Amino acid sequence: MKKAKSKIWIYGGVAVAGIAAVSFLMSGSDRQAEDVPTFSVQKGRLQINVLQGGEIRALQNFELKSEIETPTKILSLIPEGYLVTEEDVKEGKVLVELDNSDLKTRIQDHEIQFQTTVASYIDADEGREIQRSENQSLVRDMKETAIFALMDFEKYLGRELSMKILAAAGLPKDAAEFDKFADQLESQANAQLEAGTNVSAVVEAKKDPIRPLKNAIGSAESERIDFSPFLEGQNSGDGEAQQKLRQLEDELLLRKSELAVAKQKVEASQRLASRDFISKTQLENDQVNFEKVSLAGKTASTELALFKKYAFSKMCAQLVSGYRESLTKLQRTVRANRSKMAQAETRFQTAKRRYEMELAKKEDLDRQLKACMMRAVQPGLVAYGDLNASASARYSESIEEGSNVRFRQTVLTIPNMSQMGVHVNVHESQVKKVRIGQPALIKVDAEPGIVLEGRVAELAVLPDSSSSRYTPNLKVYPASIHILGTHPWMKPGMNAKVEILVDQLADVMFVPVQSIEVENDHHYCYVNESGNLARRSVETGLFNDEFIEVRTGLQLGELVALSLPKKLVPENKADGPTAPGLPENPVTPAKPKGQGKAKPKDVATVK
């Protein structure tokens, strides 16, 4: 009896369960529409924002960096957060003291080398001046020698004839032309010395006006000058040669006159002797005198001929050769002076550069020694390290007493509190919306009830490499938002949220983002049609973190499902994203009965 009763209860339970299952399947669609919260399609103003979290930073920072070229230990350090006042700046308050013992040793060692360099520099400078003075003396002596040679030639031939002969020989014909020649030599030598290069032969021949004179002076005499024609008709000249010529000619004329007188006397004596009017001895005396006078005449004629043919030409050749040699010596002296001056200038420039290098090194060491005491130069709050560096970089470079700081490492930072901004990293999916100059709203975590205004001032062109180093798939673009106005309570390092106002859509239809489903790049939503949820294809536009623009597919006032019953959610969509740029798994908890319709909102932000 007990077994029969138990079987009846089991069969009865199974029957009741079957009836309940059939009734549930028959009324599933009604329950589906009743349990899912819905939202009425709205139309109005939709604000598109980009929301990013960031860190408050000063737009301008005064940084105290280590100017010591070697790693240096911190001996003393002012506490972080200390407020540097104007009085501290006037008194030159020491904020950081670095170890200077190594620098003092280096300065002492360098002082010996520096003094040696100074002595070498002074010696080279004086040597250059001495060489310049010696060069001037040598050139002056050579000029005087050449002028004296020219004067000797003019003295011998006279000014007019000497100029004629020198012009024919291609030499400076007078003192004015010689001075011009000497000045050209010196100026060209000085120009080459300053330029440090030699002018090529072709360019020199074209540009040098005294090149023909140089060729005539420096080359050997390929054609000998016949000076005898220059003596013809020069009896009235004012040179020694003309005077000698007149003397010889006068002597010859005198001898000829004496010869004529002696001849007449001999002839007369011969006539008288034939008549025995004079003695034979007297006749012989007259004949001997005639012979003497005849020989004297021949001698005078020979001397005149020799002077014209040999002595004159020889003396002219010697004087011209002496003049040419003096000019050649002047050239050699100028060139030798240029070489000596170039060597002296090279020694001076080398010593000068070495002195300048050692002086710069000395000044740099003195500057580093002075930089071991970092004094207050600007009022403000003191912060350790570089405020603009990443957190990992600031952690790796700890600033404390006893730690070492490297060259150009930021030890202290004094931010300018009057101009503040927010540093944010914009995700690559949102960066195309952000533009420089767009307005922004800033909320600081320390003051949640205050909303500040700002502007997008900077936006990186390339993504931040430091963020992609650890997460290669994450691409963010650093941006700077300048906060308008001055806020004394704001401090660098505070966390803030920035809402960048990207666009303002007017009179558009929109629905919550969680009501949109994406499948194969197509957007769908579920519309409540007479208590049943019908899937409908829609065309969407811009969106923020709460609402999305619907361009086609829905009508104003229609109810769209905010979440789907579990049996209607496709298995392959349960864990996947709903739409590019939309939050994943757009399903919100079901609302209590009586609250199926959500109230619309017209402004929201994108996270």
From TrEMBL:
Protein's cellular compartments: Cell envelope
Region Disordered, residue ranges: 570-607
Record's keyword terms, sorted: Coiled coil
Domain of life: Bacteria
Primary location: other
Domain named YknX-like beta-barrel: residues: 422-500
Name listed for the protein in its UniProt record: YknX-like beta-barrel domain-containing protein
Top-level taxonomy: Bacteria, Pseudomonadati, Verrucomicrobiota, Verrucomicrobiia, Verrucomicrobiales
